[in-house]
Amino acid sequence: MTLKLYGHPFAAFVWKPLIAAYVRGVPFEFCMIDAEHPDHCARIAELSPTGQFPALTDGAREVTQSNAVIEYLDRFGGAAPMIPADPDAALASRMLAAIFDSYVAEPMQQIVAEALRPEDQRDPRRVSEAKARLDKAYAWLARRMGAGWANGEGFSIADCAAAPALFYADWVHPIPAGALRAYRARLLAHPCVARVVNEARPYRPLFPLGAPDRD
Ligand SMILES: N[C@@H](CCC(=O)N[C@@H](CS)C(=O)NCC(=O)O)C(=O)O
Fold first, then answer.
1. CATH number reported for the structural domain that contains residue 150 in this entry
2. pLDDT at residue 64, rounded to an integer
3. Is 100's C-beta closer than 6 angstroms to any atom of ligand 1?
């Protein structure tokens, strides 16, 4: 049975299962969500409660929400799972993934969403609130990041979440020099993260705030 992953290569939350699948060597068919694939758009509308992506199908099985998709991918291939077997490491990895999703990726998306609104409908207060949330998250994470991967052990679901969150958050609200910025650089040097960054590169003109050249 072919695993089908629905998404767009520029979408932050789609990077997460892409990174997991590449790191673990799990084959899948990528189903592009764009105007040229109305069948995929119709399918994602069924698969996801909000129509947002990613979602994954495996025959009749349907999985949506990026963290659940990553967890499902752990069932395939023989590589170390993204949810570590050790319960403490699993808890830390899930917790950090949720923090990167809610307190880094979501405020980043809020800033991007404001930029996508017509000029007369933008609210600078929403942008400053999102930046304040990012500042708090950056400081909390910087205090906890060591010299390795997020959970202090192997590459996990936390790193899958961190890579797109920190990649794009730094574009909208730069991460100060220090442990978190160094961790972002380590993530970008990982070959599977670099692959996802490169696959998304052609879509950078979609970014409403202008993509910096540095990454
Ligand atoms: N909680 C969801 C968030 C998914 C999400 O925000 N997806 C964005 C792409 S990064 C999306 O579908 N955006 C298009 C839209 O909102 O129409 C998850 O973890 O999968």
1. 1.20.1050.10
2. 98
3. no
